[in-house]
Design a protein that fits this description.
Shape: elongated
Number of helices: 18
Order of helices and strands: HHHHHHHHHHHHHHHHHH
Oligomer: single chain
Length: 335
């Protein structure tokens, strides 16, 4: 039998072998080697490292629930602070991936409390902000983003984090704070399209439609993002509808369909049909609803469009057509 030092080297060598399998993406080999290792080795610290590696292997295999179980097992025994912080981070990340944001935030917060000088802290603050935003806990999200910015003023992505904070201020109803950051981004000539969009959205919410439109048009001028530009034009069209200017609203919706085909087209068609209906142009409304219904059969707006189409037929006295619409909605909708 080998002496203890010799056995220790053998155990470490076997763990390194499993790491080699993992690094070379031979995950099934690594999985088998680690399970065998855990069953034979008595050293708690080595076993904890093996569980940590086994969790990473299962993560790579897409077995996230198993990975969480192994990370938790590793976290109980690990003494190495660097690896332990990594285990906590991996647990937070895995829970985040399966949308268990409350559990995710617990593990990320543990890193802040136990390892405040860890190199993982910047990433932890951003992950926590994501968790809290998903949970609609905006004050806690804002706290993490503010701390990230104060602790990492020269971070390469600092402007994107400032924009993110502005958006979170806006979601929290802290309009003055959001406006100050949007103005800061505009002054620095960064994120111009999105910053102008954010400013426009604040005015939109305050029902300052003229100022909102001015900001939205500047957003389109500065942005090359077709999805954003389609969203901006959609908001402009909606503003015209709120002002009962259905003619201009319809022109805007038509412009979106022509300039940005496929970008939010089902929503655009729905809003266009609604505008036609409110303007009393019922045949045009039915045509727009029809284009949505038959062109976008997987749209979330499908059944409500079919229902509103039925309402128009009912108004026109076309009861047989209305009946077909209502029956389809009834048959396909769980009540």
């Amino acid at each position: 039998s080998q002496s203890y030092p010799g056995r220790k080297v053998g155990e470490q060598s076997r763990l390194k072998l499993a790491k080699c399998y993992y690094k070379s993406r031979r995950y099934n080999k690594a999985n088998a080697e680690l399970k065998n290792f855990i069953g034979r080795v008595k050293d708690k610290e080595l076993v904890a490292e093996a569980y940590f590696l086994l969790a990473q292997v299962n993560e790579a295999l897409g077995l996230r629930i198993k990975a969480i179980r192994y990370f938790r097992r590793a976290a109980k025994e690990l003494k190495n602070p660097i690896i332990l912080a990594q285990a906590y981070y991996a647990l937070g990340w895995d829970y985040w991936q399966i949308k268990h944001f409350d559990y995710s935030s617990i593990w990320f917060n543990l890193i802040l409390k136990r390892f405040p000088k860890s190199r993982l802290i910047p990433a932890v603050r951003l992950r926590l902000a994501e968790c809290f935003i998903s949970l609609k806990n905006y004050p806690k999200a804002i706290l993490q983003l503010e701390k990230f910015i104060s602790e990492n003023p020269k971070h390469k992505n600092i402007n994107s984090i400032i924009y993110w904070l502005a958006e979170t201020y806006s979601a929290a109803g802290m309009d003055n704070n959001a406006r100050a950051l949007y103005e800061k981004l505009i002054k620095a000539s960064v994120y111009l399209g999105r910053a102008y969009y954010g400013m426009g959205w604040l005015y939109y919410r305050e029902k300052e439609y003229k100022k909102s439109r001015a900001m939205f048009y500047k957003a389109i001028e500065k942005s090359r993002d077709e999805v954003l530009n389609a969203e901006v034009l959609l908001k402009i069209g909606d503003m015209y509808c709120l002002e009962k200017n259905f003619t201009d609203a319809i022109q805007i919706y038509t412009q979106i369909l022509e300039k940005y085909p496929g970008k939010k087209s089902d929503r655009v068609l729905y809003q266009m049909a609604d505008a036609y209906e409110k303007a009393g142009r019922l045949d045009k409304a039915v045509a727009s609803f029809g284009t949505l219904i038959y062109g976008y059969p997987k749209s979330r707006l499908l059944m409500i469009a079919r229902y509103k189409e039925g309402n128009i037929y009912f108004k026109q006295g076309l009861f047989k057509k209305a009946l077909n619409c209502y029956k389809e909605v009834f048959d396909k909708t769980v009540i």
